[in-house]
Design goal:
The protein is mainly alpha-helical. Helices cover about 55% and strands about 0% of the residues. The chain is built from five helices and no strands. The N and C termini lie far apart (about 80 Å).
Length: about 130
C-alpha cells in the first residue's frame, strides 16, 4: 500500500491577509485599488442613435405590430379560401387595392368599407 505524504497547506496568493482586506474594502480578491473620496467621476453621455427621433424600441414595437397584423390577414385569408370563397374573394379584392404595410391603417379602412368588410376586420382582430 502506498503511503500518502502530507503536504503543508499554504494560503493561495490571491487571498490576502486580514490587514490587506481593510485596505480594499473587504474584498480579498478585488483587483482594483480602493477609490479615494475625491476620485474623478466619469461623465457618461447617452448613446446617440441616428434616426428621426423615435427610439429603437418604439420602432421595433411598431414593426412587430404591423408584422402580426400581416400574419393575421394571411391566416384569415387562408382560412376563408377553404370554407368561404365569396368572403375570400372580397378580402383579396380589398388587398389588391389597399396597402398592408401599415396594419392599423389597413384594418381601419377595412372597417369603414362596408358591413361585410367590417365583419372580416373583426375576424382578423380576433
Amino acid at each position: 500500500m502506498a503511503s500518502l505524504a502530507a503536504l503543508p497547506l499554504t494560503q493561495p496568493s490571491f487571498f490576502t491577509s486580514k490587514s490587506a482586506n481593510k485596505n480594499t474594502g473587504g474584498f480579498p480578491c478585488w483587483p482594483c485599488k480602493q477609490r479615494s473620496s475625491n476620485s474623478t467621476r466619469l461623465n457618461c453621455q447617452k448613446m446617440y442613435v441616428p434616426g428621426s427621433g423615435e427610439s429603437p424600441e418604439a420602432k421595433a414595437s411598431r414593426n412587430l405590430h404591423n408584422f402580426f397584423n400581416y400574419i393575421a390577414v394571411k391566416i384569415v385569408s387562408a382560412q376563408l379560401q377553404s370554407y368561404n370563397p365569396e368572403a375570400y374573394g372580397e378580402l383579396m379584392e380589398f388587398l389588391n387595392t389597399h396597402n398592408l404595410n401599415d396594419g392599423d391603417k389597413f384594418c381601419a379602412s377595412l372597417m369603414r368599407e362596408s358591413s361585410r368588410h367590417k365583419s372580416l376586420a373583426c375576424y382578423i382582430f380576433s
